Amino acid sequence: MKKIFFSIIATLCAFAAVSCQKGDGDAEYGNAVVYIAQAMTNGAIDNVCAVPAGADVYTYNFKVEENVVKVFLSVYRSGKLNAEDVTVNIEANAAESAAQAKAMGAEVMPEAMYSLPLKATVPGAENGTTVYLELQKSALQAASGKVYVLCVDITNPTKYELSKDASQVVYKLDVDAMKAYL
Q1: What pLDDT, in 10s, does the model give residues 155-176?
Q2: Where are the beta strands (DSSP E) in the chain?
Q3: Which of 46, 55, 57, 176 has the fewest CB atoms within 10 Å, i.e. the most exposed one?
Q4: Is residue 73 within 8 Å of 88, Cβ to Cβ?
Q5: pLDDT tens-digit profile of 72-118?
Q6: How far is CA 153 from CA 28, 63, 94, 165, 177, in A?
Q7: In percent, how much of the chain has pLDDT > 90?
């Protein structure tokens, strides 16, 4: 009886020791690809990110601060690995904005209405970072009935590669839908 008892205890201790080791959930995996999260808001079908995305607090993709509306522009790195910092350039794409505006029956967002940061850096210890497409609240209030389009690209990563499908987001801003938040 003692032998069976000690055998069971030894087996349980062995299982406990094995379970304390680094598991598959902590292992490195995936490819490190840099992408814009908002490019995938509708399943990455067409990279369109409607602003506002909805009327619910869980669908807000912007925030209003004093005289500025800040639309989220989140840059992420995929995979789980011992990562390093990665910096990307952020640029408005005028040609693609014009093509998308024409296809959507909208207008290209005037340059005087917005500002974009020049770069975004995802720290090595993080999976992503958020910067903002900033819109002047007064310009939005004066643009009743307008639907604007702005294409934003990330380019020139300092490390890793860009996603082929999600390195550009097409912001489609419905001014009248925004009025309730201004």
Answers
A1: 999 999 999 989 999 999 999 9
A2: 33-36, 48-51, 62-65, 68-77, 86-92, 107-108, 114-115, 119-122, 128-136, 147-155, 161-162, 168-174
A3: 57
A4: no
A5: 999 999 877 667 899 999 999 999 999 999 999 999 999 999 999 99
A6: 28, 21, 10, 11, 25
A7: 60
On whether the CB atoms of residues 135 and 2 are closer than 8 A, the answer is no
Distant-in-sequence, close-in-space partners of 160: CB < 8 Å, separation ≥ 6 = 32, 33, 34, 77, 86
Amino acid identity for residue 137 in this structure: K
Give the largest CA-CA distance in the chain. Answer: 87
pLDDT of res. 3: 56
Q: What is the DSSP string of 138-164?
A: HHHHT-TT-EEEEEEEEE--SSSEE-S
The amino acid at residue 64 is: V
**SS3 (DSSP) at 27:** coil
* Beta strands at 114-115 and 62-65: parallel, antiparallel or unpaired: unpaired
